[in-house]
Amino acid sequence: MHGTTMPHSDSSVSLSPFFEISATAYGRGCIATSDIPSGTILLECAAPLGACVIRPFRKEVCQRCYEYNGGKTLKFRIENKKGSIYFCSETCRASFEEEDNESILRSCLFDLEHWYRSNSCEDNYDDEKKSLEEAWSEIEAWEQEILKTKRKSHMVPKLTETEYSDIIYILDVMFSQYKGTNELELSLFVKLQTNEQDKVAKYPYLLKSYTRMYKYLKLTCGPQLQPFITIDNIRRIIGTSLTNAFGIWSSTVPGEDKEYFGCALYPSASFFNHSCSANVSRTRHGRSISFVTSHPVLQGEELCIQYGNHTTEDYHTRQKDLKEWFFECGCKKCEMRI
């Protein structure tokens, strides 16, 4: 189960007829309101609030439904001289175009690809010696300076491959905020706990990366998304993704390693705590994700998923991996050190 640093919200939130959000020994969690048979669908999330496909797979994984083409370049795309956005089918391409009917998101993605091709750099940051508040205060001062500058193209920072992917995710969340159509997920997003401070404390070099991404967005995005490029909002988007976003993984046959394609954020699913002997499994169907009981659950029992992509590791390996979520697991399996 997770620690008290994990996201939680008001107990009044009602997401499912099968559970309620209640206080637990570890914060908040999903508690069964009745006996639940195995195979029961507890929660279905139709679409993520934000998602990204990492750059190495951008030609092989559909931008819309995350279908993998087995290493082959996808045939359907939207393109211009700056770049291309790839899809598995005409249906997915049309769905993307319908949602992005003002060409806001695609313009940002084209600009990002064009900039990265000519202005990329390596992940070789030195540890940042500044505090979070000091670094973001400097960004506030920087914003005042750029208001006085007419030519800003020379101020756009170079990007690493990791930043390229992270910016896609940030753009996607901001685009959802701009559209305002996913009201439930948007309302829950602002309640998620950010782990920015914990992450930067563990990996100080990330602070420079976060502020560089902010500068890129501020200097390149069009007027429609500018209202969402505030220090508070970008910090929240970054900070909440660190321990709330779900990985987008390939579907494989037993015995094969899964491929990591990117991540997707479903705020309504962030109330499920972790257990190494989880009683809830999750399955992705294109853009949607469903949570289903993997065995019978009794009334009053907590409904837990398994964080990450780990199922067979020993106790010490699991504990090491779970530290990325900033908690120590206290489930029965870990109590027995199995």
UniProtKB/TrEMBL annotation:
The protein's matches in InterPro entries, at most eight in alphabetical order, are given as:
H3K4_H4K5_MeTrfase (IPR050869), SET_dom (IPR001214), SET_dom_sf (IPR046341)
Q: Which GO terms describe its cellular component?
A: nucleus
Q: Which CDD domains match?
A: SET_SMYD
Cite a single Pfam family from the UniProt record. SET
Alphabetical list of Gene3D superfamilies matching this protein: 1.10.220.160, 6.10.140.2220, SET domain
Q: Which residues form the SET domain?
A: 11-308
What is this protein identified as? SET domain-containing protein
